[in-house]
Design goal:
Helix content: 40-55%
Shape: globular
Low-confidence stretches: none
Strand order of the largest sheet: 8-9-7-10-15-6-16
Number of strands: 23
Structural class: alpha/beta
Distance between the termini: 58 Å
Largest sheet: 7 strands, parallel
Number of helices: 38
Strand content: 5-15%
C-alpha cells in the first residue's frame, strides 16, 4: 500500500533540531513498511472514516461513511455509502467535501447505513484518525454501538509513533510517506489511512529499546486501546530493559557548547557600526531579501541604530515605537549581529505568547535564511512547559491522578486512558528529542494534570535526579539556550529568574524587553505572596492521613515491605500533625473571613479586598487573626518537618514509592512562609491585603496577600546591576513625550547620568486621516445616576451609525451588565448583534467568535484592552465609556497615598493614560485600517488632566461633540471614507 516517499518532504515536516540518526529513521520508514510483516496487526482490521454536516455532536449528522477491510496487509474489501440527513447540507461542507444535497437525497437513513456498516465490520477492530469523532457520530445512531467494541485512534497513536513530525494530520502523513492523497471524501481518507497504518507500526518499532514493553505493562488495570498493539510489537523486539538515561545520552552527544558569560569578558567588546546597520536595512541589505516588496521605514532604521548604540556603549534605552514601525526586526537584527560578532547571547522577553510565536515562527526563521551565517535561536518557557523525565517514569508505576481531574461528563476510565496516552507520547518524544517542550504533543490537558508530567523550580530534586542536568529537558533547555545568538522568553520567566537569583535562565547580560508597558504589573503578580483557604485545603486533601491521600498510599505500601517500620511510624506521626495543621489553618481562615466582613466597605460582589494598613493591624478583628495564626504557624511547622523526615526515610527504604511527598512539603513550606510574612507585616517592601471571594452556590474562599509596592526599586536592586545593556520597548510607554512614569516602573531612573536615553518614534501609519477621536463632552459624570441611561443611548447611536463591529471596553462588570441588558434588545430590533464577556467565559473563545463575524459587536472588560488584534472590517470602532483609573480603595492605591505625595498624579493618572493608548491601539492594526475612537467620559474636557490623555493619542483629529450628535458625525465621516 505504501508506494514512494521523498526524503526532502520528510525533512520539511521534521521538527527543528531533529538528530540526524532520527531523521534517517523517518526517511527509511516507507521501505521498512514495505518489507515488515506485522501479522495480526494488519490482518482482520477495518479502517473507517466519516463525513458530517459539521463538528457538533449534538446538532450535526452523518452524510457519508466509508470503510476498508485489511487482510494480509492489503485492502480486501471496501464499504461506501452516502447518508440522508434530516437537514440540508451546509454550503461550506459541500465546498469542502463536494457532497451535495442531490447526492444524499436518495441515500439510506443513518440507521440503515450504520446497520450495513456493522455487518461489514463484523466486530473487528476499527482504525480511525481522531476516532472519538467518528465513533461518536456512529454510536449516536441507533445500532451504532454494535459496529465494534475496539476503536483505535490513529491520530493519538501517530503522535507516539512519530513524535518528531510537526504535523500528524492524515493529509500530511499520507503526503510524507507516499500514500494515497486525502480529499475530504471518506473513501479516499480510508485508503490513505490504510497506507499510513504500517508506517505508524514501523515508527513504534523504532522507538527506544524496551519502551514498548514498558508502555504495554504500565497500569495494567486500565483498559487502554493501545496496550494490545504495544504488547504485540514488543514481542517482535529483542527483550531489553528501557534505559532512558542511555538513550538520551546518545541523543545529546553532539550538543553545542555554551557561550561565555558576557559579564566575565576582560576585553572591550567588538561593537556593530552604524554603517553595518545602514547596509543591513538598505535596498540591497539582508532585510530587503526577506520581503517581496521592501520599503525602508526611517523609524525602523532609527530604532535599529538606537539598539546598536545601546549595546555598543553598554547603556539602557526606553523606546516607544508606534504601531507599524516594525520594532521586532529593528531590535532583532542588530542584536543578532552583536551576538555573533562577540560570541554572546542576547535575550528577548515578551508579554504575550502571540508575539513569542511570531518571533520564533516567522521573524527569526526569516533572518536565519537571509543572513549568510544563519541564526541560532532558542525559545525558553517555564518549568510547566517541559517534561520532567523523573516524574514521567515514576508515573508509569505510581497511582494515576484520576481524582485530580474535573470529570465534566467524562468517565474516570476515559481520563485514565488519556493519562496513559500522555505518558506514552512524552516518553516517545524523550527518546527522539534532544530538547523541546510539551506544548505541541497533542496532550489532552483537560484529562491530564500538568503535575503528572512536569515539575517546578521548587519541586525539582536537582542532583538526586538521574537526568540532571545534561539529560533533563528543563535544565538542558537552559544549557542549550546558552549556546544561542538569541533566546526568546516571556516576562513571567524572566521575572521568576530574577526572584530565583539567576538560577533559571542562562547568564544573559543583554536584554530586549518588548511589550515593556506590562513588565511592572507582571512583576507584581510574579513576586506576590498569597496564602489562601483553598490552597491550604487542597494541600491537606492531597496529603490525606491514615485513611486517605498520599500518606495512606505510602502506609499501605510500607506495610508490605520488610524493614519499613520507621517509615510507617513517621508517616503516622505526620498524619496526626497534618490533621492538627488542617484544623488550625481552617480556623485561621474562618477568622480572616470574619475580619473581611467587618471591614468590608466595597460594593463589589465577586471579590472584596481589604487593605491591611498599620492602623488596621491595631484593630480587635486583626488581633483575632493574629491569635488564630499563632497555632496555625506552629502546626504547619511541625507537619512540614515530619513530612520531610518521612520523605527522606522513604527514599532510603522504598525502591519505587507509590507517590511522593516532596510537592506537599513544598506546598506546606510556602503556606508557612507566606503566613509568617503577612501576619508580621514587618517587610515594608510589600503592601498587604485580605480578600474574600464568592463562588458558585454562595461558597466563599479567603486569602491573605502581599504584593511588592515599588517594582522599579526591586528591578534596580536585583536585576539591572546584572545586565550590561537593556532595551525597553512598546507602542505605549510615554505620556506625551514624557517617560518619567515608565522609567521609574522599571528602575532605569536609578541609573547614572548618561547611562540611559528615551526615544519616541512615531507610527508609520496615517492616523490623522484614518482615525477619528470623538469626545462626548456633555455626558454626565460617571457617578451621576443619569450616566448609564445616557451611555446606553449614546452606544445605541454609535452601533447604528457603524452598522456593528464596535468594541466597547468597560472597567466595571456591573455597569457593563446593566447597559447590555437595555441595549442588546434595542440593537437586535435593528438587526445588529451584540455579545458580552460573560462571567467565567473564556476570553480566547470570545475573541475567536468576534473575529469570525464582521458585523458583531462586543462588550468586554480588561482582557480586551490590550493584545487583541482585529484588522480590517472586523473592528471599526472602539468605545471607552469611562477613563480607566485605578480603584481608589485598591490596597496598592491606598498604600501609595500614605507613603507618597501626589501619588494619584504619579501612578493612577499615567497608568490610565497608558491603558487608553492601549485600547486605542486595538483600532488601527494595518496601514489600510480606518476607524473611530469614542470617548464617553466628559472629564476629558472638564478636567485639566484631560489634555494629557488627548495629546498621548496617535492622532490630533479629536473632536468634542454633544452625545446626541456623535452618531450623525460617524455617518458623515464614514460616507467621506467611501
Amino acid at each position: 500500500m505504501v508506494q514512494t516517499t521523498s526524503s526532502a518532504l520528510v525533512e520539511q515536516f521534521l521538527l527543528p533540531d531533529t538528530p540526524v540518526a532520527v531523521a534517517q529513521l523517518y526517511g527509511g520508514l516507507r521501505e521498512q513498511a514495505n518489507q515488515q510483516d506485522f501479522g495480526l496487526l494488519v490482518d482482520d482490521v477495518v479502517v473507517l472514516d466519516t463525513e458530517t454536516t459539521g463538528l457538533s455532536f449534538k446538532k450535526c449528522e452523518l452524510i457519508e461513511i466509508a470503510a476498508a477491510r485489511i487482510e494480509g496487509g492489503q485492502i480486501s474489501d471496501t464499504f461506501q455509502t452516502f447518508v440522508h440527513p434530516h437537514a440540508p447540507i451546509p454550503e461550506e461542507i459541500t465546498k469542502l467535501t463536494h457532497i451535495s444535497n442531490v447526492d444524499v437525497v436518495d441515500a439510506p437513513s443513518a440507521e440503515d447505513a450504520v446497520a450495513a456498516l456493522a455487518e461489514f465490520v463484523g466486530g473487528m477492530p476499527v482504525l480511525a484518525h481522531n476516532a472519538t469523532f467518528d465513533r461518536t457520530f456512529i454510536e449516536k445512531v441507533k445500532g451504532g454501538k454494535l459496529v465494534s467494541d475496539t476503536w483505535i485512534d490513529t491520530l493519538a497513536l501517530s503522535r507516539i509513533a512519530l513524535p518528531r513530525l510537526s504535523s500528524h494530520k492524515l493529509a500530511d502523513l499520507a503526503s510524507i510517506f507516499g500514500c494515497a492523497a486525502v480529499s475530504h471524501r471518506a473513501i479516499d481518507d480510508v485508503v490513505a489511512l490504510a497506507g499510513v497504518w504500517p508506517v505508524m507500526l514501523c515508527g513504534l518499532l523504532n522507538l527506544g529499546p524496551g519502551l514498548l514493553r514498558t508502555l504495554a505493562d504500565m497500569h495494567e488495570d486500565v483498559s487502554w486501546q493501545f496496550r494490545p498493539i504495544f504488547s504485540y510489537l514488543a514481542r517482535m523486539q529483542t527483550e531489553k530493559p528501557f534505559a532512558l538515561e542511555h538513550i538520551r545520552r546518545e541523543l545529546l552527544l553532539d550538543d553545542l557548547p555554551a557561550r561565555r558569560d558576557a559579564a566575565a569578558f576582560d576585553q572591550p567588546t567588538n561593537p556593530i557600526t552604524a554603517n553595518q546597520i545602514n547596509e543591513a536595512f538598505s535596498p540591497s541589505g539582508c532585510v530587503s531579501r526577506m520581503y517581496d516588496a521592501f520599503e525602508l521605514r526611517p523609524e525602523q532604521l532609527q530604532m535599529a541604530q538606537e539598539v546598536r548604540a545601546a549595546q555598543a556603549s553598554e547603556e539602557s534605552r526606553s523606546i516607544e515605537a508606534g504601531t507599524g514601525v516594525g520594532k521586532s526586526m529593528a531590535y532583532l537584527l542588530p542584536s543578532i549581529m552583536y551576538a555573533q560578532q562577540n560570541n554572546v547571547t542576547v535575550g528577548v522577553a515578551t508579554k504575550t505568547n502571540a508575539l513569542t510565536d511570531q518571533l520564533v515562527a516567522h521573524e527569526l526563521p526569516a533572518l536565519n535564511d537571509a543572513l549568510e551565517q544563519g541564526v541560532c535561536y532558542f525559545a525558553l518557557k517555564g518549568y510547566e512547559h517541559y517534561p520532567c523525565l523523573r516524574k514521567t517514569l515514576q508515573a508509569t508505576y505510581t497511582n494515576l491522578p484520576v481524582q485530580d481531574v474535573d470529570t465534566n461528563m467524562r468517565s474516570q476510565a476515559t481520563i485514565a486512558q488519556d493519562q496513559l496516552t500522555a505518558l506514552a507520547v512524552t516518553l516517545a518524544y524523550a527518546c527522539q528529542s534532544p530538547s523541546g517542550d510539551l506544548d505541541s504533543l497533542g496532550i489532552k490537558w483537560r484529562s491530564v494534570p500538568r503535575s503528572l508530567l512536569t515539575t517546578t523550580s521548587e519541586e525539582c530534586v536537582h542532583g538526586r535526579c538521574p537526568f540532571f542536568p545534561q539529560l533533563c529537558f528543563v535544565h538542558g533547555a537552559r544549557r542549550r539556550a546558552a549556546s544561542a545568538d538569541v533566546v526568546v522568553t516571556n516576562h513571567s520567566l524572566l521575572l521568576r529568574n530574577v526572584a530565583a537569583e539567576g538560577n533559571i535562565l542562562p547568564p544573559i547580560r543583554h536584554w530586549i524587553i518588548d511589550e515593556a508597558h506590562s513588565l511592572e504589573d507582571e512583576a507584581r503578580r510574579q513576586w506576590a505572596v498569597e496564602v489562601s483557604a483553598h490552597a491550604a485545603r487542597t494541600a491537606f486533601e492531597s496529603l490525606g492521613g491514615a485513611h486517605t491521600g498520599a500518606i495512606h498510599e505510602l502506609l499501605v505500601q510500607a506495610a508490605g515491605i520488610e524493614g519499613s517500620t520507621l517509615v510507617s511510624s513517621l508517616l503516622t506521626k505526620a498524619a496526626t500533625a497534618c490533621t492538627r495543621a488542617s484544623i488550625a489553618t481552617s480556623e485561621l481562615f474562618s477568622t480572616v473571613a470574619d475580619f473581611c466582613k467587618e471591614h468590608n466597605h466595597s460594593r463589589a460582589y465577586d471579590t472584596q479586598t481589604i487593605w491591611i494598613s498599620q492602623q488596621l493591624r491595631t484593630s480587635d478583628a486583626w488581633q483575632a487573626v493574629m491569635e488564630a495564626a499563632e497555632p496555625a504557624i506552629h502546626a504547619l511547622d511541625e507537619a512540614a518537618k515530619l513530612i520531610l523526615e518521612a520523605q527522606k526515610k522513604i527514599d532510603e527504604t522504598i525502591q519505587k514509592p507509590q507517590t511522593e511527598l516532596s510537592s506537599e512539603v513544598r506546598n506546606l513550606a510556602e503556606l508557612l512562609d507566606g503566613l509568617k510574612l503577612i501576619i508580621s507585616g514587618e517587610d515594608q517592601s510589600y503592601v498587604y491585603s485580605a480578600c474574600i471571594t464568592r463562588g458558585r452556590g454562595g461558597l466563599t474562599s479567603e486569602a491573605l496577600l502581599a504584593e511588592k509596592l515599588d517594582i522599579g526599586t526591586e528591578l534596580a536592586q536585583k536585576w539591572l546591576p546584572e545586565t550590561i545593556s537593556t532595551i525597553f520597548t512598546s507602542a505605549t510607554i510615554a505620556i506625551g513625550n514624557n517617560f518619567t512614569h515608565f522609567n521609574h516602573s522599571v528602575g532605569v531612573d536609578s541609573l547614572s547620568d548618561g547611562a540611559h536615553k528615551d526615544v519616541r518614534l512615531s507610527s508609520s501609519f496615517d492616523y490623522d486621516n484614518n482615525m477619528r477621536v470623538l469626545i462626548a463632552r456633555d455626558m454626565p459624570q460617571p457617578n451621576d445616576p443619569r450616566y448609564l441611561e445616557e451611555l446606553e443611548d449614546l452606544l445605541f447611536d454609535v452601533h447604528c451609525a457603524m452598522g456593528g463591529s464596535v468594541l466597547t471596553l468597560f472597567t466595571n462588570r456591573r455597569e457593563m451588565e446593566r447597559v447590555y441588558e437595555g441595549l442588546q434588545p434595542r440593537l437586535a430590533g435593528k438587526g445588529l448583534d451584540l455579545v458580552m464577556q460573560e462571567r467565567n467565559s473564556a476570553p480566547k473563545q470570545l475573541r475567536t467568535t468576534f473575529l469570525s463575524q464582521t458585523s458583531l459587536s462586543l462588550f468586554a472588560l480588561k482582557a480586551f484592552w490590550e493584545g487583541f488584534d482585529a484588522s480590517g472590517d472586523t473592528l471599526r470602532c472602539v468605545v471607552i465609556p469611562k477613563l480607566p483609573f485605578a480603584n481608589p480603595n485598591d490596597p496598592l492605591s491606598k498604600e501609595r497615598e500614605v507613603r507618597e505625595e501626589r501619588s494619584w498624579w504619579k501612578h493612577s493618572l499615567p497608568e490610565a493614560i497608558i491603558s487608553v493608548k492601549q485600547a486605542a491601539g486595538r483600532l488601527i492594526r494595518s496601514s489600510t485600517d480606518v476607524g473611530v475612537l469614542v470617548l464617553a467620559d466628559s472629564r476629558l474636557v472638564t478636567k485639566g488632566y484631560g489634555k494629557q490623555f488627548l495629546t498621548s493619542l496617535p492622532t490630533s483629529s479629536c473632536t468634542a461633540l454633544e452625545a446626541s450628535n456623535i452618531g450623525r458625525y460617524i455617518e458623515l465621516w464614514r460616507d467621506s471614507q467611501k
